[in-house]
Specification:
about 450 residues; Alpha-Beta Plaits; seven-stranded mixed sheet; about 20% strand
Length: about 450
């Protein structure tokens, strides 16, 4: 796997700086050399070195004091400070460490020793900037990698990857189980990348890959496929057979939550010019959010989104209320209409089926389980709606006083709303469901 190129800043007099630069460039680092602390300050205003190699005695100042200044002014992660000291006095070396140097070397120093010591510091820095959970490069290394991509002539694609419904998974099975799932995803990502591609771990379940544009979509498809296969091992058999988890919200509201899946957003340098690493991350995440609106593991790329995106006309969402209590039906109709929805009300299961099949279909059905219809109750009606190919995409909110919330979800309802309910909670849940439906159409 590729890693960002380390950056080293040398502060020394011209001749010595050139000698040390030629040695350290052979380690694969990008080396900048300046002959004064003043010029170093100018570079540090935009350069973020991994290591600073500086002389203790310079015409414009003391290297030990400069170490102290760096520690006081540069935010984390600050560079490793290696001070070159011409004196062999032990007390002088101890004093240099007290001023803030991370390492003190002789000046001059054998070129092989210098290279090995610098490489050791860079290796340690890489470990410190990696995720403790997955050992992948963390946020600062991801930033460095993206900044290097932005100034490179080489085309690239960034894949923003995360897990959907991880919070519910952790609430159900525990954080340790969730960590194992994250580590499994990290292993998949490492397995599919080549030596000249990059994988980083931003935080929690948020990952970033940098690959060649021509491989981006096939890699996204491969990652989704492998994750869907492996993730099933992290569930009990009964949950796999049921096909969903149950999330508990405020006021006893229950909802069916899909099993955990992957969402990937792709942005390519060949189709979009990003101005900064933040621009890359936010744009890739925007496409990742589009992927989340699809069922199961999915990916969306900036190119494909541009080609296939549609802009439907805005419309008022339609709600069908099936409620045998006349007073409650009127209250629901009035409150939902005030929210801007087109609302139809019925108390009959047969009439509800007729209204649901009319074009345009309702976007949401608010269904009471205990209907006056002797032939068909709310549970049966919910099953019929979800088994109908043309109606199954309609959101069904089951409102019931029945204490067993699993009955509603097993019947196919998308949301279980225990009665009695407060109107703000109902309206909030309805608005949330209908907003998500608008995003996917």
């Amino acid at each position: 796997m590729m890693l960002p190129t380390p950056i080293i800043l040398i502060i020394h007099q011209v001749r010595q700086a050139a000698d040390y630069a030629s040695i350290l460039e052979k380690t694969g680092a990008k080396v900048h050399a300046v002959p004064s602390f003043e010029q170093a300050n100018e570079l540090l205003s935009f350069l973020h070195p991994d290591l600073i190699l500086l002389a203790s005695e310079m015409p414009d100042g003391d290297g030990r004091l400069y170490c102290q200044q760096i520690r006081a002014t540069l935010v984390q992660p600050r560079p490793v400070l290696v001070l070159l000291l011409s004196s062999n006095d032990v007390n002088e070396r101890i004093r240099a460490f007290r001023y803030g140097a991370d390492d003190v070397l002789g000046d001059p120093i054998d070129k092989n020793e210098l290279a090995i010591r610098v490489l050791a510091h860079l290796r340690r820095r890489q470990e410190e900037l990696s995720s403790p959970l997955t050992q992948l490069p963390g946020p600062n290394m991801i930033r460095r990698m993206l900044e290097q991509c932005l100034v490179s002539d080489r085309p690239w694609a960034a894949l923003s990857i995360d897990l959907s419904n991880l919070r519910i998974y952790n609430e159900t099975y525990g954080d340790l189980a969730g960590d194992q799932l994250i580590k499994a995803l990290a292993a998949i990502l490492l397995d599919v990348v080549s030596d000249n591609e990059f994988v980083g771990h931003l935080e929690a379940d948020d990952f970033l890959m940098i690959v060649s544009p021509e491989r981006s979509e096939s890699l996204a498809e491969k990652v989704c496929s492998q994750f869907d296969t492996i993730s099933r091992r992290f569930y009990p058999r009964e949950d796999i057979e049921r096909g969903y988890l149950i999330a508990t919200g405020h006021s006893g509201i229950r909802r069916r939550v899909s099993l955990i899946s992957l969402s990937i957003g792709i942005v390519c340098s060949t189709t979009r010019r990003c101005q900064s690493y933040v621009d890359v991350l936010t744009t890739a995440r925007d496409y990742r959010y589009l992927a989340k609106e699809q069922a199961g593991s999915a990916w969306v790329s900036d190119y494909r989104a541009k080609v296939t995106s549609k802009h439907p006309e805005t419309h008022r969402s339609r709600i069908l209320v099936i409620e045998p209590d006349g007073a409650m039906a009127c209250l629901l109709q009035e409150n939902l209409a005030l929210e801007g929805y087109v609302v139809e009300v019925t108390s009959s299961a047969d009439d509800a089926l007729r209204l649901a099949r009319l074009e345009p279909h309702p976007d949401l059905i608010l269904l009471e389980s205990n209907l006056a219809d002797r032939r068909l109750d709310g549970w049966d009606l919910c099953r019929m709606l979800k088994e109908d190919e043309t109606l199954r995409s309609i959101w069904v909110v089951m409102a019931t006083a029945h204490p067993d919330q699993s009955l509603a979800l097993e019947a196919g309802a998308d949301l279980y709303l225990p009665k009695p309910f407060d109107m703000p909670s109902l309206l909030g849940e309805v608005n949330l469901l209908l907003r998500s439906r608008c995003h996917t159409t």
